């Protein structure tokens, strides 16, 4: 400071100017980082809305309760509603948004009132808890509105059963619960408005930043994983961008899709080919510039155009069709686990057994296989253990500072809302800290409470694991095979020969993208268990499916009718060979087995071997797609069917195991 003070005035101004520039650059980089990890800032804004709405509802509800001489828990219904509802209010149109709010608030009040009524009869209350849990589990295949109703129903029933208020007190709580939807409307429509117009612009920035990271990254062995992660995130952001754009400007959606596909293909070629040439970087940057131009024009039109006055009419769905698509099997498993958790948890605590039942609900919700359930249960246990320890420390440090406690509660609500839908373990951590703070403020001893919560959560997760293994279990391999079947069917539609000269539409392309991400989610639990033999096999399967998906998207952008005779003479038989191999893989997945290696080598034999002309570089994608499909058959054997020993895998690791037609195609293509 003394050195700066001794400088001339001009030098001091220069130093101050440089510091301001550095601060602005650091802030800009931090904002760009937020857009990279959170496309469109969806999670950030959702967490901020939930935290702000909860604080407002808490201030209004608690102040009103104290003013009227009621218990401090009288505002609990409104606070809990304002914490959960903002996560599931995603309708783009105003009327749809208010309709979702009304449905969720009505379900929440009805569930709380039902729990308050039956709480005087413990057996009836427990049976009702299982029924509400079963019905909530059935709805997990529906949209955000229904899922929000399910979460609010189970949370409000737990609240009513735990507080077991008298009829008059329940009436007061329901009357004061209006603070919840009022706070949600104030936050989501005024303070942090949910407008559809700015959303595409925010997501487009995330897409551009991911593509720019790929352009700057080193795509050699050291940087290939980072570039691939950006490529996957770019595709997820592109799916979200097209979805938002199609709801507001169908005319511009086609141009946006064309620009997005060109950008994704340029990025994929740079990553897959590990192309570090200046030409590849220049082509990718040109694709970024074209995309930004199209996205800016689309965002300007959406901003200038008035929103539709009325929501689009919903397509009528037969009742029987909707009834069949409900999640019956997960609901049955969860109900069985809830009954067992209720019996075991009540031996530990007659007042906190609901925590064990809630653990069964959240462990089964959104999971489809035994591996999914184990993975979710492990995340919940880890988050609960860390959160219980943190809650003891936080309560000990800030128990008597009410203002600090309120701030920490708001931070916990934000952290829970930010993480719960994509990083479940972190969300559970923040929720456990929040629960500890709330109970400490109500006068409970935090150490004993933390031990009790850990015990109930362990009971719920253990019972859920047993139910997943015993009650009509679905093996992870079967679940992955089903998801892979859908991806291969979508790839077949993308790469098969098209005489009409029409490229696959946006719906077909994005259907394949979504199915690939479904496969990723199905494989993730297996890849997480590094102590299991299946871990390396699952990782290999994921990488091979990723390559097949990317090469399939590249091949889909080229059509034989666009080229001359030699190209058509090669591409049509080559596409037929690829489709034949995909059909064989689909057939074998249907029968729960994989192709024998000699059969895999003979599928389509001789078709790619006529490639013949090394001057046609576009053939590389076809040859590589065919080679990756052969590798995919081996990955299915290793990860799903368990037919290969370690010796066989090492024997096949060299290039001699490639199918003859693939080897010839790669040689002729100059790869």
UniProtKB/TrEMBL annotation:
Residue runs in coiled coils: none
Similarity remark: Belongs to the YccS/YhfK family.
Classification via Pfam families: FUSC_2
Primary location group: membrane
Alphabetical UniProt keywords: Cell membrane, Membrane, Transmembrane, Transmembrane helix
GO cellular component, as recorded: plasma membrane
Residue ranges of the TM segments: 70-89, 101-134, 146-164, 170-192, 325-347, 353-371, 378-397, 403-421, 428-448, 454-476
Domain named Integral membrane bound transporter: residues: 341-466
Protein name per its UniProtKB record: Integral membrane bound transporter domain-containing protein
Bilayer topology annotation: Multi-pass membrane protein
InterPro entries the record matches: Memb_transporter_dom
Subcellular location: Cell membrane
């Amino acid at each position: 400071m003394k050195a700066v003070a001794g400088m001339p005035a001009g030098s001091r101004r220069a130093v101050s100017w440089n510091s301001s520039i550095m601060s602005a650059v650091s802030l800009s980089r931090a904002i760009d980082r937020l857009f990279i990890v959170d496309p469109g800032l969806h999670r950030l804004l959702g967490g901020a809305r939930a935290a702000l709405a909860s604080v407002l509802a808490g201030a209004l509800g608690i102040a009103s309760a104290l003013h009227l001489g009621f218990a401090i828990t009288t505002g609990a219904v409104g606070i809990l509603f304002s914490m959960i509802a903002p996560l599931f209010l995603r309708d783009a149109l105003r009327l749809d948004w208010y309709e979702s709010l009304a449905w969720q608030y009505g379900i929440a009040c009805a569930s709380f009132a039902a729990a308050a009524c039956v709480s005087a009869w413990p057996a009836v209350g427990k049976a009702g808890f299982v029924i509400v849990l079963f019905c909530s589990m059935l709805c997990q295949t529906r949209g955000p509105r229904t899922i929000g109703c399910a979460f609010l129903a189970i949370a409000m029933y737990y609240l009513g059963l735990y507080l077991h208020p008298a009829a008059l007190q329940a009436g007061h709580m329901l009357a004061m619960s209006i603070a919840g939807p009022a706070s949600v409307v104030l936050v989501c429509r005024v303070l942090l408005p949910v407008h559809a117009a700015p959303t595409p612009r925010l997501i487009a920035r995330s897409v551009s930043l991911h593509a720019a990271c790929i352009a700057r990254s080193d795509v050699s062995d050291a940087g290939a994983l980072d570039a691939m992660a950006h490529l996957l995130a770019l595709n997820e952001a592109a799916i979200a961008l097209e979805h938002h754009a199609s709801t507001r400007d169908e005319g511009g959606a086609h141009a946006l899709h064309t620009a997005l596909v060109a950008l994704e293909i340029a990025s994929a070629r740079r990553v897959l080919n590990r192309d570090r040439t200046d030409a590849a970087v220049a082509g990718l940057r040109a694709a970024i510039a074209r995309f930004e131009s199209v996205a800016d024009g689309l965002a300007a039109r959406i901003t200038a155009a008035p929103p539709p006055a009325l929501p689009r009419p919903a397509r009528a769905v037969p009742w029987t069709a909707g009834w069949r698509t409900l999640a019956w099997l997960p609901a049955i498993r969860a109900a069985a686990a809830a009954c067992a958790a209720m019996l075991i948890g009540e031996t530990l605590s007659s007042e906190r057994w609901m925590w064990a039942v809630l653990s069964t609900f959240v462990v089964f919700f959104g999971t489809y296989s035994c591996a999914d359930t184990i993975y979710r249960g492990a995340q919940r246990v880890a988050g609960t253990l860390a959160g219980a320890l943190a809650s003891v420390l936080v309560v000990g440090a800030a128990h008597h500072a009410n203002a600090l406690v309120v701030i920490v509660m708001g931070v916990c609500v934000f952290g829970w809302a930010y993480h719960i839908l994509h990083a479940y373990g972190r969300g559970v951590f923040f929720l456990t800290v929040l629960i500890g703070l709330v109970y400490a403020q109500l006068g409970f001893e935090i150490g004993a409470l933390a031990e009790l919560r850990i015990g109930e959560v362990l009971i719920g997760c253990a019972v859920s694991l047993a139910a997943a293994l015993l009650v009509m279990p679905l093996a992870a391999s079967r679940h992955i095979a089903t998801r892979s079947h859908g991806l291969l069917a979508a790839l077949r539609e993308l790469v098969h020969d098209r005489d009409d000269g029409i490229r696959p539409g946006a719906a077909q392309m994005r259907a394949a993208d979504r199915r690939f991400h479904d496969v990723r989610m199905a494989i993730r639990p297996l890849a997480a268990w590094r102590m299991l033999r299946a871990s390396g096999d699952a990782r290999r399967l994921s990488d091979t499916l990723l390559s097949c998906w990317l090469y399939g998207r590249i091949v889909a952008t080229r059509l034989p009718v666009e080229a001359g005779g030699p190209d058509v003479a090669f591409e049509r038989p080559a596409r037929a060979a690829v489709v034949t191999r995909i059909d064989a893989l689909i057939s074998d997945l249907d029968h729960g087995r994989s192709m024998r290696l000699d059969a895999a080598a003979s599928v389509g034999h001789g078709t790619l071997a006529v490639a013949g002309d090394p001057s046609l570089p576009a053939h590389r994608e076809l040859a590589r797609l065919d080679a990756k499909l052969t590798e995919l058959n081996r990955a299915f054997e290793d990860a799903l069917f368990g037919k290969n020993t370690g010796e066989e895998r090492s024997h096949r690791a060299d290039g001699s195991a490639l199918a003859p037609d693939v080897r010839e195609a790669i040689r002729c293509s100059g790869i």
